Amino acid sequence: MSTLERVADIAGGYPLDAAPDVADAVEWHHLASGVRQRFRALEAFLADVYGEGRAFDDGVLPWRLAFESEKFRREVTGLVPPNGVRIQVGSVALVRGEDGRFRVLGHNTSVPSGMIYHSEYPSRLLGALRAAAPYGVADPFAVVLSAGEHPPLTGVDLVEGHDLSCHQNRVYLRGKRQVDVIYRLVDDDWLDPLHFRPDSVLGCPGLLNAARSGTVTIANAIGNGIADDTLVRPCLPALIRYYLGEEPLLGAVEPGRQEAGLRLFAVNDGTNVWVLPGEPSGG
């Protein structure tokens, strides 16, 4: 069974657009540049909101935008990922307006779905995960933490919460092999019952302590959800100007538009940001 057939079997069908949007080379270059710009700004914002908070002190954003958000995680304040990347994989949903231009409907920097399904993308994703490993790890061991059935990612063990355990702030697979990178398909609330939902059986107690100790990297980073907050999204143009000193390359859609016509992934290995096409559905 092919990867797409497995996805269709798991998801109850694979979405295909009867009239797909087609972008020529010039338009694709513009889209890819705009997506890279957006994620550079989002990385800077996440580093700032869990770090110095310059954008808040300078009046670009109000402090209440972070502190009143349910997606802000005080538990990871001051936690800096080894290679500085918090969004190993992100997605952007776009629609083509009546004027023919693509505009951004939304983005996902937390747990974007769908990337793992594309058979041509595992090498990019695996490279980003290995690059995110803790300092000094020469041959990183990565796992995919899933809450249920997902197609396997070539070269990476697919695990559930009960397969992992923490001992002395280190994470182990079935009590034997130390885990260096966890690509999680589980939301923040369910990752670590010691710090978040105490009734969770989807994650593993002690994951956050291990991440704070620098022995494991969780990708995407805990707390990224603040960048996906509906109150933050309208601020992206201002954040791009503030952090990057550039004008936004991609505009946003008018309120009320729901369905995306195009979805792109951004994969960041700390050196390059790869922009790849994906299916319109998903998060």
Any overview of this molecule?
With 283 residues, this protein is of the alpha/beta class. It has one domain. Helix content is 24%, strand content 19%. The chain is built from seven helices and twelve strands. Strands 10-2-1-11-12 form a five-stranded mixed beta sheet. Strands 4-3-8-9 form a four-stranded parallel beta sheet, sandwiched between helices. A three-stranded antiparallel beta sheet has the order 5-6-7. Strand 5 and strand 6 form a beta hairpin. The relative contact order is 0.23. The N terminus is likely disordered.
Largest sheet: 5 strands, mixed
Give the number of helices: 7
| Fraction of residues in helix | 10-25%
Low-confidence stretches: 1-14
Total beta strands: 12
* Domain module count: 1
The SSE order reads HHHHEEHEEEEEEHEHEEE
Could you write a compact summary of the structure shown?
With 283 residues, this protein is α/β, with parallel strands linked by helices. It is built from seven helices and twelve strands.
Outline the secondary-structure elements.
Elements lengths: L2 H9 L13 H25 L4 H4 L5 H5 L21 E8 L5 E7 L13 H10 L10 E4 L11 E3 L4 E4 L2 E4 L3 E2 L2 E4 L22 H7 L3 E3 L16 H9 L6 E2 L9 E7 L4 E6 L5
Parallel strand pairs: 2-10, 3-4, 3-8, 8-9
Antiparallel strand pairs: 1-2, 1-11, 5-6, 6-7, 11-12
